[in-house]
Amino acid sequence: MMHAEKRLDLSMPAGAGARVKRNRNILISIITCLELCGRQGTALRAHRDNSTFDGLDLGKFNAFVDFRSDSGDTVLREHMESCSSRASYMSKTTQNALLDSMGEVVLKSIIDDVKASWYYVILADKVTDTSGWEQLGVALCFARNGKPCELLVKFVSCEKVRGKDICTALLHTLQELGLDAGLCRGQSYGGAGNMSSAFSGCQAKFRQSSPHAPYYHYSSHQLNLALSKSSTLPEIYGMVCTLKSLGIFFKFSPKGNRALEQSNERVNEARKAVNKPQVTKQSLRYCVTPSNSDKQWDVKAITEANGQLKTISSSQFIAAFRTNNFFFGFTKSLSVQLQGSSQDVLDAYREIEVVKATLEDERRKVDEAFKRPYQKMCELARLAGIAREKHQTSIRIKIAELECRFSAVPSSAIQGLLLVPSHPSALTDEKVDEVSTTFCFDLPSPQTFPREIQLWKQKWSIEKAADTKLPATLTMAFQEATTVRFPNIHRIITILPVAPVTTATVERSNSALAYIKTELRSTMSNNRLNDLVLLFVNKDIPLDYNAVVDLFIFKHPRRMLLVNPLE
User: How would you write the pLDDT of the chain (567 residues) with one tens digit per residue?
Assistant: First the structure.
């Protein structure tokens, strides 16, 4: 046999396959410890974690590795006992390399889903991190099996916050992710001028590169603006300011906080049958009454406490507090729903219409509607020794603000409502032309679209005659509109679910940033920050350990045998 020494199968040492498997298991054990730190938002390193540091605290990552090796991972324990200090795969450099591979695997999973959806919407929100840098959180909204899904993909450092600079950062991010900006079908930001301006804002600049991506001001902020505007009523504004000052009085004073806890205990013992709001009221009365203060309270605290007591015991405060409590009972569930990461645009605007209609009914029959809130007002007024009259100004202002903020329903929601089979009568010839014009650039066969609509209407007319339950949401309609029978309708229903309702996903990710980049970890690089945030935020995305090892080997070749070329 000529040149047998050059044959790879003969030159490989005996037991190479077993060595590769053992080495990969070592790396997977280390990756598992890194994943635990990332998923929980835990700092990996202490002040020092290298071999030259003699301290006891080498960081949580090293502690997890030691715990795993002591808990039965014999392969990892043997590696830690026998490896040299330069081949432990525990250094901060290797940590960063492994985290980079882990973040890339998670990100690839997200991008694969986005590409499978074909169309997407970009969402962004800006936040200042602990080190003072402006970070732009970028998320993508896409359809997964016909259901809307929002996931964070990256934080981008912004040295400049002008509209065109942020737009450039977004386009560069899409290019890095391998996404076509031409397939973007919407953009959702806040209402700041640098983002929403029709001429020089980010949304205007972005539409120059993606002309079919309209701008949406997300509904969760619309609701917040409506409530904030309603709070400009002097009585409501004064009540909110009083609650803020009262919270500060107790929160930032250890003595005040302890006094509140003690008074709650006393009131709970004395009045066990009283509901929670009344107990809180009595607790506050006890805490801010100067007669209950001993010598440890100075004159300033006693004076402020007395002022707080008089304010919360006033007729104006009680009426405003109970009125606002009554109103937020209607909007609380809507607020929670608008912050969901998989919110259907039609369902969201249906709920908004329900809330507006309910509030309008309550205002028309105000005497009956405010009967129970008025009883609560009278009960609190009796405890304060005052009288109270009814008002309906606040609820009227709130309804007007909801009408103003939510009167312009996005065209995508209207088009979606037309195609839902439970509303077949809405598909008139004029509406069909309107839908065709709106989505003409995306329809695979625009010439046959009117005939396809006729088949769609006839299908559900037959189903309705057979007493079959008709699909009432876009997700249910997506399952019925197959690409073979209804290619144009399938394409439209594929686009509609990605119409954004909120950017709550980005805002939650901005909150998560505070867990990752703390004051003690303020100098981490943006690459490491993104890798840790992806692990922390996307806990529901499983990590493929073998894919992480393969990517690590490809990007950072090492002397450790990790690949068997014969397999």
Answer: 455 455 444 455 555 677 888 888 889 999 999 999 999 988 887 766 554 555 566 788 888 888 898 888 888 898 888 888 778 888 888 889 999 999 999 999 999 999 998 889 998 888 888 888 888 889 998 888 777 888 889 999 888 889 899 999 999 999 999 999 999 988 888 777 888 888 888 999 999 999 888 887 765 555 555 556 666 677 777 887 888 888 887 777 777 777 777 777 776 666 555 454 454 555 555 555 545 545 566 777 777 777 877 787 787 887 778 777 777 777 777 666 666 555 555 666 667 777 777 777 777 776 676 777 777 777 777 766 665 554 444 555 555 555 555 554 455 556 666 777 776 566 777 778 878 888 888 888 888 888 888 888 888 888 888 888 888 777 777 778 888 888 888 888 888 777 765 556 777 777 888 888 887 777 888 899 999 999 999 988 999 999 999 899 888 877 666 655 545
| Per-residue tokens: 192 | 């700041």
Note whether 255 and 385 are same-domain residues.
yes
In a shared domain, residues 92 and 149 = no
Token pair of 424, please? 């077949």
For residue 351, tell me if it sits in a domain. Answer: yes
Bridge partners of 136, per DSSP, are 126, 156
Q: Are the CB atoms for 123 and 141 separated by under 8 Å?
A: yes
Task: Residue 253: give the domain boundaries.
Answer: 229-406
Please tell me the total count of domains within the chain: 4
C-alpha 492, offset from chain centre: 26
Within 13 A of 347's CA, how many CA atoms are on the CB side? 17
Phi, psi torsion values for 126, nearest 5 degrees: -105, 145
Q: What is the C-alpha to C-alpha distance for residues 263 and 133, in angstroms, rounded to an integer?
A: 43
Q: Residues 420, 492: one domain?
A: yes
Spatial distance between the Cα atoms of 491 and 498, rounded to a whole number of angstroms:
12
- Considering the domain architecture, whether residues 252 and 342 belong to the same structural domain is answered as yes
Does any domain span residue 224? no
List, in sequence order, the alpha helices (H) in 313-384. 315-338, 345-364, 366-369, 371-384
Establish if 5 belongs to a structural domain.
no
Could you list the beta-strand ranges (E) of 377-512.
none
Give the span between the Cα atoms of 270 and 359, in whole angstroms: 38
Same domain, 23 and 120: no
The tokens for 43 are 């700092």
**Diameter of the chain by CA atoms?**
109
Coil vs helix vs strand at 197 = coil
Report DSSP letters for 407-435, one per residue: SS--HHHHHHHHHSTT-GGG--HHHHHHH
In a domain, 54, yes or no: yes
Residue with tokens 């396959």: 17
How far apart (Å, rounded) are the C-alpha atoms in residues 249 and 132? 29
Contact call for residues 90 and 30 (beta carbons, < 8 A): yes
Q: Based on the domain organization, do 251 and 341 belong to the same domain?
A: yes
Judge if 399 and 458 occupy the same domain.
no
Q: Which helix (H) or strand (E) holds 235?
A: helix 234-251
129 closest CA partner among 470, 518, 413 = 518
Same domain, 130 and 247: no
Q: Which of 406, 437, 458 is the last residue of a domain?
A: 406
